[in-house]
Specification:
274 residues, MetI-like fold, 0% strand
Length: 274
């Protein structure tokens, strides 16, 4: 018992140390976003601003008129990509787990094969296809190529394989069809897996840089990561503005994770996701 307690104590100390190492830079960035440039340039490591100010946040919206548009573009893309992924990935995962149809195993192995292809390899084909469709510098060009994800199709399949069949059989006895069973019985009870998927998909879409870089050339259509790259080049020595912009970029993901945290832990456990 003493050995177990010592092992547990060391494990928690390591976790606390890792948490401190992870949180300190974020807390410093949050503090710096409320400091004037002179205080940051002084080189202090104080986490409580001596001259607290919100001017940095006001300035990035006033002096950079496109910042609000970049924020809106990222929000539209991330929300729609997340909704489409939740719908299509869940339907595909359920079909692979429950429905036996000709070629189901072939489709499953094709999805596994797609997991092995780095996303950078598909950038050029995506660009050529979107160009031929006339979808460069458009929302549909940004959203539709990422409307499904092989990783989360596989994840949802693993979840539905362990889903109780008795519930679906009871729904069938009550006269529900396949679609009604999925949307009225199965999907509402898949909250843990859905929460994990929502967090990962939203975070991936919100942080996406390469696809917007390839297909967007109009500054008004930039997403926030792409806009922040241009913003950083413009205000390269103004760390107060850069920190304020970075905090605005970070907060939506933190808020989403905080909201879905309870279901997220369950979803990772049930699906075996990492």
């Amino acid at each position: 018992m003493k050995t177990i307690r010592w092992t547990t104590g060391i494990f928690y100390l390591l976790l606390i140390g890792y948490a401190v190492i992870t949180l300190v830079p974020f807390l410093w960035a949050l503090s710096a976003s409320f400091k004037p440039l002179a205080e940051i340039a002084a080189g202090g490591v104080n986490f409580i601003p001596e001259a607290f100010t919100t001017d940095n946040y006001r300035t990035i919206f006033v002096q950079e008129p496109l910042f609000g548009r970049w924020l809106l573009n990222s929000a539209i893309a991330a929300i729609l990509v997340t909704l489409l992924n939740v719908l299509f990935n869940s339907m595909a995962g359920y079909a692979l787990a429950r429905i036996r149809f000709p070629g189901s195993q072939v489709w499953f192995f094709m999805i596994l094969a797609a997991l092995m292809i780095p996303g950078q390899i598909t950038l050029l084909p995506k660009f050529l296809i979107l160009k031929s469709l006339g979808w460069l510098n458009t929302y549909q060009g940004l959203i539709l190529p990422t409307a499904i994800n092989a990783t989360f199709i596989f994840m949802m399949r693993q979840f539905f394989l362990n889903f109780p069949k008795e519930l679906e059989e009871a729904a069938a006895l009550d006269g529900l069809g396949r679609f009604e069973t999925f949307f009225r019985v199965v999907l509402p009870l898949a909250k843990p897996a859905l929460a994990a998927q929502i967090i990962f998909v939203f975070m991936g879409s919100w942080n996406e840089f390469l696809l917007p870089l390839v297909i967007m050339s109009d500054p008004e259509m930039f997403t926030l990561p792409l806009g922040l790259n241009a913003f950083k080049g413009q205000y390269i020595s103004y760390w107060n503005y850069i920190m304020a912009a970075s905090i605005i970029f970070t907060l939506p993901v933190l808020a989403l994770y905080s909201f879905f945290n309870r279901y997220f832990i369950q979803g990772v456990t049930f699906t075996g996701g990492k």
